[in-house]
User: What shape does this take?
Amino acid sequence: MSQSPIPSQSLPIGFRWSAVRAGIKASGKPDVALVACDGGANAAAMFTSNQVVAAPIIVGRKHLVASGGRVSAVLVNAGNANCATGQPGVDACHKSCVAVADEFGCVFDEIIPSSTGIIGVPLPLEKLLAAIPNAKRALGNMPGDAEAFATAILTTDTKLKVARAEFSVGNKTVRLFGCAKGAGMIGPQLVPHATMLVYLFTDIAASSQQLALLLKPAVEGSFNSISIDGDTSTNDTVLLLASGQSGVAAEVDAAEAFEAALHLVCRSLAHQIVDDGEGVTHVVTLEITGANSDAEAHTIARSIANSPLVKTAWSSADPNWGRLLAAAGKAGVPFDPAHLSVTIGGLPVFESGTRAAQFDEGATHEAMQAREYTIALDFGTGTGSARFITCDLTHEYVSINADYST
Amino acid sequence: MSQSPIPSQSLPIGFRWSAVRAGIKASGKPDVALVACDGGANAAAMFTSNQVVAAPIIVGRKHLVASGGRVSAVLVNAGNANCATGQPGVDACHKSCVAVADEFGCVFDEIIPSSTGIIGVPLPLEKLLAAIPNAKRALGNMPGDAEAFATAILTTDTKLKVARAEFSVGNKTVRLFGCAKGAGMIGPQLVPHATMLVYLFTDIAASSQQLALLLKPAVEGSFNSISIDGDTSTNDTVLLLASGQSGVAAEVDAAEAFEAALHLVCRSLAHQIVDDGEGVTHVVTLEITGANSDAEAHTIARSIANSPLVKTAWSSADPNWGRLLAAAGKAGVPFDPAHLSVTIGGLPVFESGTRAAQFDEGATHEAMQAREYTIALDFGTGTGSARFITCDLTHEYVSINADYST
Assistant: This one.
């Protein structure tokens, strides 16, 4: 009996996973992960909008175009981002894809590479190449295999991040399994064509175009609506792979059910990423309503989520709502504070341009001691809204990211 | 003999300063500061671009318009920002101006109010009103008086921030004296008409219009080119007051000399603000060159300056230049890393899309242990440039801003 947290019935058909030790992570933990899409899969992907992108992003984008969105395998290494490594980095990435293609007897365009880890250090290609045959031999479709994959991609993460959903159409079952890594440099702003890595596996039958149309809104409402430190990574990637082996096509009711399942899994993984954020002690959901547009609501939410003064106040459960207002006000979005009302954990703090009459500092401080709570800002003018998940800024975050010794 | 750090010959003629204890600061230190412009002064001001602005910003803007830029006195309180206090806050601010006007026998439009401190707490108007006659009696034109003023406006600051310049035209001397407060919530984005408070006093003769034209570029190159935590305050103000009592008009050569003096004083005060930033252990100057425009260079600099990952790396002198690249790349400005070169403290770290051949991690780490150094990024395509002064993010910053107990 499997001890894996992933129930076996949740895994989509058509995929096999593995992970091996290649010596890229200094810890010596498994650091090369492989997915085989047996029979091929259709894919849709979204990558970082950062101007500095890692070699695997450059190569993966090109491969998806060349193959028409067809994927045979995904090769991931953790411990080295292969970013800012110039043409040699791109060449090394290409060679690793060729090596995987040789193992599987497919064209290299059908291999999607991913890397996460330190930026600017040359990829240890020989270690990666040596690991590929072992990774292929280790492939399996059991929960332990998927868990090994989901574990090997982690870097500063402290927790495994997996989510699943399934639904039935007649007597057939469609399964969706997702896994993610990321705990720092998290402020994804993904564009279609993000060092958060997210892999979504399903056995629904859908074209790459259908998958792309489904993926974008799911990512907007999940990974593009979270922030830990606001630092958009150079390697962020969300990859959705559909094997088609459930025998259920993504049409009509099944498409709707799949869309709901995709949103569910993406939101769960996005929440898990923030919950495991570097040094996080409080997870805060920002609910913005009454804005002039969804886009403006999102911009205000991101401004609050990325304010060091707001985030440090959260770390001590300090009901300093003035900082919330200042952070909203610097977003570059026009609004009138006279129409704004703010609640923290459901408790009124600000109404009609001034401190709420019922503001209770002690009760608000107590509500903010919960690990997780919601701050709602209603701008009182329009119908624009946004939901954004973020976290506090703590001593531990500084320690993790200032940890350096010669 | 005066023990003040401000030499007496540096003070412009036509101003008197004072500070008294009104009990607004919890520390009991002097917290109400007054400037009298004897004979009146012409003024130009720039205020915060935050959508949430404090009552004194609302009132001060109105007064400058109504008086045609004519100022008789400036009333400052520290310890309470009078922000997000609604119409009662505006009314209280107005009453304080009326009280000062009554003391000086002028119209209330000639009084400029300023507040800094906690947001969202009603202004203790009675304390402020009670302090005004005392503040008027304490007015003086000696270095100790100016120093008392410059000290009373401080909140979390640990150092007095003053700067001065003077130049001669024939046998006449023009003097410029400036003082500033601000150590947190510093990411000014001032627009003409910026809880950084800056007061600039000069005895040159210039109209409000001339002063406004001179002030904008000086502020762009100084206060708008610094960041401590990137949080744009609700109360930021830069106020330039010219008494005319030097007898030198701001024309031709004198205008140029004054412009240079103004830039000098503004840059010095801006640097002092970052140097006294909350928890700061390293002051970093970002020199951006080769960008497509000055505006794009500035946007990239601000993105680097506000990156928590970059700022935490600086705190441990970590030459993790990959974070610099990632922060530049998320600025929303297109560029090709293949043309980018980066130096830290003059040492090459990145060239032509990859790690510099001469990159020396140990030497770079050593250079970064200096309290102050420069990071230069040359984007290699255009003539756009920017100079931006910022600092590291430390445990002490988190402690200062998370300091809360019920």
